[in-house]
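Notebook entry, structure prediction.
Reason for the run: the old model in the group folder had no record of what sequence produced it. Starting over properly, with the input documented here first.
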Amino acid sequence: MSNRATNPATETFVAHRNLLFTVAYEMLGSAADAEDVLQETWLRWVKVDMGQVSDQRAYLVRITTRQSLNRLRTMKRRREAYVGQWLPEPLLTAPDVAEDVELAESVSMAMMLVLETLSPTERAVFVLREAFDVGYDEIAAAVGKSPAAVRQIAHRARRHVDARRPRAVVSPSETRAALESFQRVLETGDLQGLLDVLAPEVVLVSDGGGVKQAALRPISGADKVARFMIGGLGKNNRPITVAPTVVNGSPALLVHLDGEIDGIMAIRVEDARITGLYYVRNPEKLNRVESETPLTLR
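New structure, fully documented this time:
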């Protein structure tokens, strides 16, 4: 890759890299695995006869999709052995991603969890069609199905996702307002203030990966969630600092205990109150949060 400035294959790959990474990440829920898929895509791309490729973007997306599908099927065994609840690896994103409402929703924690309930092929078809508006013929070539079969899969996957996705897309400003209130009550330990910002049906999902303490099952209901949050943070007896950040295209909180990163907290907001809390504490999923440059996904 030393001839990056003059190699057409490299220039094309770099031009589409953000797109390819986002396709892989939405399919896998792991930035580390998405990077591995990009490396595999690159190794196959440089062996391709460019003269035989009429649409380079479509060809690259096809390679990335196939490699992601291969990895997704092997990752299923890892997920089955995972300790406690699994959440996607938080992805530090540039602020402008939040302004692209459709893109921000497609990579949100809430949506990524919905995508986990699809089969690998359904997930690939849904991501390519709904998030990137790829044509059915191109998707068919990527997943090894006929265009007619892909249309059926897309319809089934869309119906499945629509039944589980948040009822309405919320603006970044509304999410930030709820997050600011949530940050204040976390820092003060105000139980009533926390109850005021949580919706009655709020659900907390926490991911410690068997390394850090986390609830093994989702916690439902404002009272239970509030007491779990206040009690859990209070037990640490260490100074807590909470700072706003942007993760997966939405405002989120970066939590430090005694100066060390403890986790990333993303939220889902409906009607100005928090209906979903996603707290990633697994250290393996936090390595990139403070070291990586925020990503622009397209």
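Summary: The two ends are 22 Å apart (CA to CA).
The old model has been moved to the deprecated folder.
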